[in-house]
Amino acid sequence: MRRLPPLNALRIFEVAARTGSYAEAGAELGLTHGAVSRQIAALESWLGQRLFVKDGRRMVATPMARIFAAEVGLSFDRLAVAAEACGRPDARRILRVSAPTSFAMRWLIPRLNRYHADHPQVEVVVATVSTVFEELRGGVDVAIRRGVAREHAWPQHRVVPVLDDVDTLIMSPALFAQRPILKPADIEGHTLLASETRAGDWTDWLAAAGLQHLTGLPRQIFDHFFVTRQAVEDGLGIGIGPLPMLEIDVAGGRLMTPLPEIRVPRTGYVALVPRHADAGNLVAGFVDWLAGEA
After folding, report:
1. Signal peptide span per the entry (predicted)?
2. In what order do the strands lie in the sheet with 264-274?
3. Residue 18: which of 155, 159, 158, 160 has the closest Cα?
4. Dihedral sign computed on CA atoms, order 4, 8, 9, 10
5. pLDDT tens string 153-170
6. CATH topology for 92-164+268-293?
7. Rounded CA gap, 141 and 83, in Å?
8. What 3-state DSSP class applies to 54?
9. Is 166-266 a domain of CATH 2.40.170.20?
10. Model pTM?
11. What is the CB neighbour count within 10 angstroms for residue 93?
């Protein structure tokens, strides 16, 4: 029998050495800092030597540990390729995606039937986060976040642009029939609906519309945009919404854009993929599909 070290501890050690941080390793693997520390201690005990030394407040891999981690990483890569080659071609694959709630509800999920039609063997599991800037956690294959495609922003991830974002005025067709908005000044007298998660939307739109003097108008504020969107659809007031994610509502007659020529560009969305992921190109193919849909 081969005398192998504990494989789970090896996996955690490789991530900790690669990321240079117990905390980042825990975030990538969905573990606590203490769990990472205990597994590395177990591996050190098995090997009979230290793998990390304390440097200030950080634990830093020793030179020998860095060499060992590189070999372990290559071994895991070979194992992943071998497992992919031996896998059953008809076996269902699970792809875990993390996305902001509004992005998932209004853009991603309505399009997933097209992905599943071309990839019937893949099950996409979508988990939502409450804000577009929520920190990355382990346990997902692809994370969608608002941001730009700059590698240094997420050094442990490959960053792929997915969707541009632009804000415009939205209202319900029923409210438009009662009190139409044909020019920017027509918004006076309407109830302005806003979202805590999209602070500044009204200020920026009013500036783009040349209505800076109305910035101080009172607003009805909800905690999240998907609540605001529902209030707009129900005719409770008018709002500012991200056009790409509201195309299905506009096409379905639930919402309308009375002044579509007045738009405010926003930071778009990117797909974040852990650099160690995807030996079988499943994740890369899904990210390409996302970009193609956009």
Report:
1. none
2. 122-129, 93-100, 142-146, 264-274, 157-170, 238-242, 192-195, 219-222
3. 155
4. positive
5. 777 788 899 999 999 999
6. D-Maltodextrin-Binding Protein; domain 2 (3.40.190)
7. 17
8. strand
9. no
10. 0.63
11. 13
